[in-house]
Amino acid sequence: MAKRPGIFPTFFISGFECSTFLWKDKKRRNLIAETQHDKFADKDYELLRRLGIAVSREGIPWPMVDKEGAYDFSPIDPMIAAMQQHKILPIWDLCHYGYPVDLDPFTEAFTQRFAAYCRAVAEYVVDKLPAPYFFTPINEITFFSFCAGEWGWVAPYKNTKEDRFKLRVALCKAAIAGVKVIREVIPEARMIHIDPLVQVVAPKDRPDLVEAARHETYVDTFLAWDIISGKEQPELGGSPEILDIVGANNYSFGQMEYREQGPHAALPPEDDRIKPLCELMHLVYDRYKRPMIIGETSGLKDGREDWLRDVMDESLAAVEAGIDLHGVCLFPAVDMPDWHTGEWLHNGICDLELHNDELRRVECEPYIQELRRWQKELNRVTQLDEDPFNDPVELQDVIDAAKRLKKKPDKNWH
Q1: DSSP states along 165-220
Q2: Helix or strand (DSSP H, E) at 256
Q3: Which side of the chain, N or C, has fewer Cβ within a 10 Å radius?
Q4: Which domain holds residue 70?
Q5: DSSP 366
Q6: Which InterPro entries match (predicted)?
């Protein structure tokens, strides 16, 4: 019996890129197909089993399964079969920047249709897979509202701050409605609301932008979570129970210098304005006092193992400081293309190499070895046993490791 039972069967989590947005060229992207995860689901989940990872973020492509209110969930059947075979617990991502082409996210019809879709998803997966059940209703509401509401990258192709603000509220409203109907079907279902951790600073020669940068760091970053938790706009129905678990994504480009037009500029690694990850996690935990995971994190190319080392150092410093951290998601499990250029990012546990129309999975050994080191350090399994769900993570092991290793927040990490 665990002294401090965790929420998940393993501390390390992974997942697969599953965006289904309409891109700038008005063409539908499907990253599940572009990475051939739909074709290699069994191999992909076998990899996670072998790596001792029993939890995976997995997408349901709303635009592909929703046929104007009727549903065809056959696209996720290969993933469900692979999960059953390899004993992997999914966190179902229900809207990853993509929605049916006939919907306008600013309308009440969007909320109603999303809620109906969420109900249908819950009814489908509860019939296919055993408990427990985890869902992310709408992925990265804050980032989604930027790229679709202000930058015009994806549908609905808006390009003003006012549109961004309106889109964020609309997405929060839909997410809250989705949580409520899922729990009508599965009362014990858990939710993970995921958004990026960011810090925005003014250019050194632009003191006039200090307040705008501060607002994005300390207000904008949190507004979606605030609405979902009921701190802001409580008339939309948010509450701490609906927020449930907070997933905070951490990437190097999350620390930025403010730009008045378009995306902000990522701070270079040596910039003295970078804040420790532990400090950013504190901002989230102190605000909501909810269980947390790092919802996504990864380095690039030859920096992947160093990135994981830094993230784990900061995560253990956060645990030592009292943050209720239940997992770290190494995302993605297999590589993904840059949305803009199509070039492989080399940020996965596996790289992808094209051979005769198939994307072979090529494991990044230094990254895996660093994962193995941390699994041993935290007394975690390195390969799943026959029933990985019979015991939750013993969080006391993670807490004890944090006390033993005495990691300190490091503002120079990168």
Answers
A1: HHHHHHHHHHHHHHHHHHHHH-TT-EEEEEEE--EEE--TT-GGGHHHHHHIIIII
A2: strand 255-257
A3: N
A4: 12-405
A5: H
A6: GH, Glyco_hydro_1
Residue 75 lies in a domain: yes
Quick one: pLDDT at residue 413?
60
pLDDT tens digit string along 87-125? 999 999 999 999 999 999 999 999 999 999 999 999 999
Q: CB-based contacts of 81: which residues, under 8 Å, 6+ apart?
A: 41, 42
> What tokens were used for 197?
């951790």
pLDDT digits (tens, 9 = 90+) for 274-317: 999 999 999 999 999 999 999 999 999 999 999 999 999 999 99
Instruction: Give the closest residue to 281 by CA, choosing from 240, 324, 238, 241.
Output: 324
Q: Is residue 412 part of a domain?
A: no
Task: Count CB atoms within 10 A of the CB of residue 200.
Answer: 23
Domain at 71, CATH number? 3.20.20.80
Please name the residue that has the structure tokens 């997410």. 175
Report the domain count for the chain.
1
C-beta of residue 184 within 8 angstroms of C-beta of residue 240: no
Q: Is residue 277 part of a domain?
A: yes
On average, the pLDDT of the chain sits at: 96
Structure token pair of residue 250: 């951490």
Residue that is written with structure tokens 């501060």 in the block:
214
Cα–Cα distance between 216 and 201 in angstroms, integer?
A: 9
